[in-house]
Each structure stands twice: as C-alpha cells, then as structure tokens.
C-alpha cells in the first residue's frame, strides 16, 4: 500500500535544499536528514512518531513539495493537516522574503551575500522546547560536538520508527526527558550542569509550570526575561530561541562566536566585534538581522563544500 501523500506550495522563491541545511547546520545531523534530494524527519503526530519525507518537484520560482508520511496514525486527513502545519513552520513555507530581496536591490554588500542562496527560507524548530534544548546542548561547544550530543539525545529518548537503514528517531519532547536520569545524560556526553538544566527544563514544561508556546505573544525583551529565569539559559540561548524557536527574523544572536566571526569577515571589520558593535552595525539592515545570520551560515556551509549553489 503506498504511503499517504500531499502537496505543499511554498511562497516563492523556495529551495528545499538550502532551507534544510539551515536546520541541519552540519552533515552528521541525524534528526534532520538530507540525501541530496529528499528531506526526512520523524515528527510526532497524535502522540505517535511519523516518518515524513519531503522532496521539491517545482522550480524555486514555482515551488511544489511532495510530502509522504508513514506511521500508526488514526486518521489520514487529520495527520496530513497536522503535518502541513508542522512543515509550514519548520521550513518557513509561508515566510515572504520580498522586503529582504528588495533591500538587497539597492545594497551591493547584501546582494552579494544573499544572491547565491535565493530561495532559502528561515526555518523554525517544531517547538520552543526543541530550540531551548538545542541551545543548551550547543552552549560553549563547537557546533560539531553539539550536534553529536543532540543525535545521542534523540537516539536515547526520542520515539523512533524503522527506516530503510535502521531506526530513525524524533527529537524528544519534554515528557520524554522529564524522567531522565542526569547521570544517563552525563553518559551521553553532557556536562553535569547541562544535564541538570535539560531535566529541569523538561520537568518544568511537562508539568505545566511554563507554557513556552505562549511566549509568542510577548515582545523580545519580555521573552528574554522569561527565558533567562530558566536554569542554564543566558543571553545567547535566549536570542537563539527568539530566532530559531519563535521566528523573530530581526534577531542576530550576537554572542554566537562563529556567527560573530562570519559577520566580521563579511563587513571587512578588522577588530573582533563586540556585542554592542554588532547591534550598531546591523541597524542599517534591520529588520533582517536574523536573515543575515542564516545567510552567513549558508555562506560558510558553501565554503565547506556542503551546498550546491
């Protein structure tokens, strides 16, 4: 029996490959998978893990996405509707970048940065919880190490399905981590403080002491204030969540060391940038600071040979 499927039509222009790489960040990411043509991820629908595959069949200017899914769902139409909503958020399908591209029309520096990556959409993690866990895992570590930690976390605690080459795991939800033993997390490679922060966060969310999705209604400063009240969350993590969890596309996480260095090179700035300098220098391009952040990441991935531009 063929897998259920449906078609999505992103706001043009759209390139699935570039957008997926903004989620993957590094080629060893096992949560967000890409084989050169197809994006694959396990999403939880109706409390069940569902394997989703997405491929682009239309051009960047007239994009269409073919979505197939498999899993023990109780209703195909209901599951398809839930997946459509999840993928629209995850892949930025409804984001209109017209203003961003228009700004580049009169700015050569910006145009040179974004032209090779036209059609890349800013992604959002499926939940603010996932964004926070990503932030905690990657704090004060290289992104390579952080992705390895997240892979192990998903393999240990994320619900899985059978894939063509073995099990594939969803990213764990708060309820999956709420009962985790911090020592088990230590065994996966997390520091003691990060293990405690992850379990504390999961318990706080799972027990209803905080509703992270309601942060959408707050302004940026209020979100930062709420997030910094959580164990293990500082300014960088809060700004990371604003961008990747809440879709605040003006946010450039200024404490991100790698992004700061890429911005410095892009601006031909001789000295290491300070946090206040980043805000001042990016002011001319606002409200597109986060989009610049994503395109600097794509530029680095292209230089590393990961992208077909």
TrEMBL record:
Keywords, alphabetical: DNA damage, DNA repair
Entry keyword Chloroplast: no
Domain of life: Bacteria
Reactions the enzyme catalyzes: Hydrolysis of alkylated DNA, releasing 3-methyladenine, 3-methylguanine, 7-methylguanine and 7-methyladenine
Catalytic activity, EC: 3.2.2.21
Keyword DNA repair: yes
GO-annotated molecular function: alkylated DNA binding; DNA-3-methyladenine glycosylase activity; DNA-7-methylguanine glycosylase activity
InterPro entries: AlkA_N, AlkA_N_sf, Alkylbase_DNA_Glycosylase/TA, Alkylbase_DNA_glycsylse_CS, DNA_glycosylase, HhH-GPD_domain
Domain DNA-3-methyladenine glycosylase AlkA N-terminal: 5-127
Domain HhH-GPD span(s) in chain numbering: 137-304
GO biological process: base-excision repair, AP site formation; DNA alkylation repair
GO cellular component: cytoplasm; protein-DNA complex
CDD domains, alphabetized: ENDO3c
Family the entry assigns: Belongs to the alkylbase DNA glycosidase AlkA family.
Protein name as catalogued: DNA-3-methyladenine glycosylase II
Source species: Desulfobacca acetoxidans
